[in-house]
Amino acid sequence: QVQLVESGGGLVQAGGSLRLSCAASGRTFSSANMGWYRQAPGKEREFVAISGYLGSTYYLESVRGRFAISMDSAKNTVYLQMNSLRPEDTGVYYCYGLINGDDYWGQGSQVTVSS
User: Fold this and answer.
1) What contacts 44, CB < 8 A, 6 or more positions away?
2) What would the pLDDT profile of 38-72 be if each residue is shown by its tens digit?
3) Which of 102, 105, 107 is nearest to 30 (CA)?
4) pLDDT category of residue 74 using cuts at 50, 70 and 90
5) What is the distance between the alpha carbons of residues 95 and 6, in angstroms, rounded to a whole number?
6) Rounded CA gap, 60 and 24, in Å?
7) Where are the strands (E) in 26-101, listed by range?
8) Which of 14, 40, 80, 102 lies at a C-alpha separation of 20 to 30 Å from 62?
9) Is residue 17 within 8 Å of 81, Cβ to Cβ?
10) Minimal CA–CA distance to 41: which of 90, 94, 105, 106?
C-alpha cells in the first residue's frame, strides 16, 4: 500500500511564496507520475501541475510561470514551489500519485493567500 504524506502550506500574503512537499512511501516504484490538484471553497477539484517519471511537466495555465513542480525520484518526493501567490490560489492542495498504475491521494494541505 502506498501512502502520500504532505507537508507545507499555510497562510501567506498576496505576492508571497510557499512550498509544498509530498513523500510517497510503502512500495518500490517502477514508475511514478506525481503532481498536485487543488480545491477552492465551493468549487470542483482542479489540476495544478504534474511531473512525469520521464521528466515531463505540465501546469494549469493560470499558474504557469509562478509555480514550479519538481520531483526527487531517489526520495519519492514531489515538491510544488509557489511564487507570486494570489488570493485565487487559496484552497486545499492535494498531492496526487499515479504509481505503478494505481491512483493515490494525499491528505490535503490548506493554502490561504490573503489580499
Assistant:
1) none
2) 999 999 999 999 998 778 999 999 999 999 999 88
3) 102
4) confident
5) 7
6) 23
7) 32-39, 46-51, 57-59, 67-72, 77-82, 91-99
8) 102
9) yes
10) 90
